[in-house]
């Protein structure tokens, strides 16, 4: 009888409290967690791109100064809603840290990243502001280069149960003087997983 | 079969009690009620909001609600509802556990499919992404629109694989059922298929179950987004699916021209026209012979879904003396998938009938007149076909393109009467999307890149 009671209590405890998974930090593992693009994929692509870009020597300015880089368009041509800043921000941080380049937020594809550069200049007509503290004309740096890219996805059936998804993370540094691509990099990420559902 | 009356009684009572009224009533009335509101042009959300709040058959009602909200120009609400449906397609349909699949199949055989949650169709999953893409275009969010059109193209690829492989696997699963032989008896099968011959022979299927509108609209999106090479590939595919539509060929040529270095001198407007109401499922009752008992043929009434056409709106629309042409016939796509899925539906319904006939026979034998009556009532009440489908879809999709010479576009109907005047910018391409489920009711959605 006691055994039965214990069993009932045990069963009820599990039934009513459930076996919910407690939150935990994602540990770095070799196996991918999703078929989609995740943080580790972006880290891998960004690290590879930055290493390659800095080693290529194209960011070495002759006079030892820094290039001004603007963000071009990074096209997300996948089936997932991705904020491409997850990729580009890492590259921008590394570029800035390298001391070879500096990003401009005053001009970018699709409009300035920070509208304040333009906005403060509108205060010139407003005599409530101390005019000497307002940015002067002809002080904004125009970019020398533009960083653009594309994330492409290709999905295919691998076998009767699995599918293969490949991501091509492509980046280009364009010299704006000439319109020439002075550096290009590509990272490919491949994942194989169940074909039961879509990858997104 | 050795069944006790009390056991059967519990089973029957339990089945109906736990699964609710839909086992007896089906879903027809609800769908008719929704269609009435949708096609009246009303924006009264109470019906849809209630369904979503009650979490009632969410895939079906979120899809319908997405169309309803789009009709009312609430693109964000529409996409939220479509997202909800898409998420459930993944979690509750694609990733359904084996136990749940068996449970659904058992429900279909013991009661009927109406008590299972709606599982949708391949073409419906694809259209979800297309509408989301169009909503994002109307919101001038081309980044997210691109994702949706990519999803639609990927779903179309998956649908092709599904119909070529998985349907075959389903057949081998059917064979494992102990009543397979009875259900697959050739006289039983003939009786069923004879009454569907006309439906199955009356339409022209697109190759590989594709929806040319998916391919065409995706191609058009990439053309708008300046990705001319991708646009070219998709428009070329669409051309081969609907070779009679010269507009698709013209669009392909345009994408080809634009992919070079030629500077744009002219801009165009595309008018996409969603015409009428798609086919819907209705219930059909047929008498079929069952060879359950060795010494005699037993005739029983079988309820199955069949497709019924609904009306068109304007046959075409006219702009600048150019008439719109058909890109894809949605009815054909619906019929093709229905025909492909029909053997499974018919098989489960026949097993259901065999089960209930056995039960009735046993009840008659062991429970006398009352037992027989209970069995007959149960069979009569639960003999309901599942007629659910996304009824907000159109009968066909059409397109007409013309060069923009002014900032006004005058759209006329098939009787040369002005339907709508749309403001555009003659220096930018425009997409004007018109839905008309019936004459007199039109919805106009406009997309000009860079403008909301």
Classify the fold: give the CATH topology of the domain at 34-58 and 68-112 and 143-194 in chain A.
Rossmann fold
Largest sheet: spatial strand order of chain A = 2-1-3-4-5
CATH class of chain B: Mainly Alpha
The CATH topology label of chain B is Serine Threonine Protein Phosphatase 5, Tetratricopeptide repeat
Q: Going by CATH, what is the homologous superfamily of chain B?
A: Tetratricopeptide repeat domain
Strand content of chain A: 25-35%
Shape of chain B: elongated
Secondary-structure-based class of chain B equals alpha+beta
Most residues in contact, chain pair and counts: A-B, 16 and 17 residues
**What is the helix tally of chain A?**
4
Give an account of the 3D structure:
The complex is a heterodimer of chains A (200) and B (452). Chain A has 4 helices and 5 strands, in the order ααβαβαβββ. Chain A has a domain at 34-58 and 68-112 and 143-194: ABC-type transport auxiliary lipoprotein component (Rossmann fold), CATH 3.40.50. Chain A has helices spanning 2-17, 39-56, 85-98, 116-121, and strands spanning 67-77, 101-108, 145-157, 162-175, 180-194. With 200 residues, chain A is an alpha/beta fold. In chain A, helix 2 packs parallel to helix 3 (85-98). In chain A, a hairpin with a 4-residue loop joins strand 3 and strand 4 (162-175). Chain A is extended. With 452 residues, chain B is an alpha+beta fold. Chain B has a single domain, classed as Tetratricopeptide repeat domain (Serine Threonine Protein Phosphatase 5, Tetratricopeptide repeat, Alpha Horseshoe). Chain B contains 16 helices and 11 strands. Chain B has helices at 5-19, 22-25, 28-39, 46-53, 58-71, 75-94, 98-110, 122-138, 142-175, 180-183, 186-194, 197-201, 212-224, 228-241, 246-258, 330-382, and strands spanning 268-275, 280-290, 298-308, 318-319, 322-323, 325-329, 396-403, 408-412, 418-423, 430-438, 441-448. In chain B, a hairpin with a 2-residue loop joins strand 10 (430-438) and strand 11. In chain B, helix 8 (122-138) runs parallel beside helix 13 (212-224), helix 9 (142-175) packs antiparallel against helix 13 (212-224) and helix 9 (142-175) packs across helix 16 (330-382). Chain B is elongated, with a radius of gyration of 25 Å. The termini of chain B are far apart. The model of chain B has no long low-confidence stretch (mean pLDDT 90).
